[in-house]
What we know:
Its main location: cytoplasm. Helices cover 48% and strands 17% of the residues.
Amino acid sequence: MDNKSLTIAIDGPASSGKSTVAKRIAADLGLIYVDTGAMYRTLTFEALKNNVNIKDQKALVDLLEKTEITFEPDEKGQSVFSNGVDVTYGIRDNNVTNTVSVVAAHPKVRQLMVKRQQDMAQDNGVVMDGRDIGTVVLPDADLKIFLVASVKERAERRHKENKEKGIFSDLDQLKKDIAERDYKDSTRDSSPLKQAEDAVRIDTTKMTIDEVVDTIKNLIKKA
Length: 223
Ligand code: DC
């Protein structure tokens, strides 16, 4: 198959390495990368900024309808814009990280997000990462990957990343936060985190990024 029209879905729990791997695959194959978690984070960021109650589905839908979320590739990988304003760093803030699961659990918010995500993949080859890409957003994707890693390993990866960025974090707290987010994301009613039946599961606990990328590229060759 022509690489330019490939659709690749990468799902998995928080900090399983999805975005790092998805970015690399997209860059290597010349495909668009869509970080769907960043879309839910942008809506959460806007809700917190505008004092919108994150439990109020209708208010969130109204806010989302007024919020254009766009991505632009750059030297850092990709920047995220909310109505043209760069929110790349703001959406990674702890306030957003700790509340985004509540926003992402509203079915009507998800409906609108899924529609936008499907539109982005309409005429383009994409690598899209998230929680429901293989199950809901791109059920006919050419390749579906489900990345997993132990909570301990994911917390340690996040801790190291934070250290490199000069951000203080407590490893035990990170483990608790990650386990809690796993629980919320996989037990919500509306399209919970779940492996698609036809997805390839890759446990990255003992793998390097290069090994994961190579494994996926080999699967693409066979897709
Ligand atoms: O991948 P991430 O940590 O940036 O995702 C942020 C949150 O958004 C996470 O709690 C799960 C949710 N999410 C989702 O429900 N569906 C997606 N397709 C992507 C993310």
